[in-house]
Specification:
Blueprint (H helix, E strand, L loop, with lengths): L1 E6 L6 H10 L4 E3 H8 L3 H11 L12 H8 L3 H24 L7 E5 L14 E6 L2 H12 L3 H8 L5 H7 L2 E4 L6 H13 L3
Helix pairs in contact: 2-5, 3-5
Length: 196
């Protein structure tokens, strides 16, 4: 079974596109959700306390995710330390999940905002990149998260440039609110099911 990465910068529409792949029967691994679950493991909490101090913990002994986000997006060294803890574990979880799949599926999707940043593409056969103009992506994130432009730019500054990702991707989906996404997904789907 082929392993296909699905990625895109902040506000590109990864959730929408992965939902369509699920609807057409393709198994989808949501790396961001898996990463969030990892933050609940005691051994991970202990490692994060070592890096960020005890103030990173809420009253309910859980990681204060909004404080953590503010700290890592303003400090590349701390971000790198966190990445070295979380990304290898996400890779392990993906491999475990992959082994559970029904072998009749032609391919599966590994959805993550940080496919290239985390070197997840090494474990996949193809990469699909979702692209949208920056102003559209930022508007989506403002509506969805209520963030201001400065916060969005700080988050995006930790992601690779879209042009760099384009050169390394096998398929591109344009999600610019003009071109319909579904026909693009179905074209890629048909190529993938006939490629192996």
């Amino acid at each position: 079974m082929l392993k296909v990465a699905l990625t895109g910068n902040i506000g590109s529409g990864k959730t929408t596109v992965s939902r369509i792949f699920k609807i057409i029967g393709i198994p989808v691994f949501d790396a961001d959700s898996v990463a969030k679950q990892l933050y609940e493991r005691k051994e991970i909490i202990d490692k994060i306390i070592q890096i960020f101090g005890k103030n990173i913990i809420n009253n309910d002994t859980q990681i204060n995710k909004s404080l953590l986000a503010n700290l890592i997006f303003n400090d590349n060294i701390k971000l790198d330390s966190l990445v070295k803890i979380i990304h290898p574990l996400v890779k392990i979880e993906f491999r475990k999940w992959y082994k559970t799949l029904d072998s009749s599926a032609k391919y599966c999707i590994h959805e993550s905002a940080v496919i290239f940043e985390g070197n997840f593409q090494e474990d996949t056969d193809y990469v699909i990149l979702i692209k949208a103009p920056k102003h559209i992506r930022f508007e989506r994130v403002k509506k969805r998260n209520g963030w201001d432009e400065e916060t969005i730019m700080a988050r995006e500054s930790n992601q690779w440039d879209e042009d760099m990702k384009t050169k390394l991707s096998d398929f591109i989906i344009i999600n610019d609110d003009i071109r319909a996404v579904l026909p693009q997904i179905l074209t890629i789907h048909n190529k993938l099911i006939t490629s192996n």
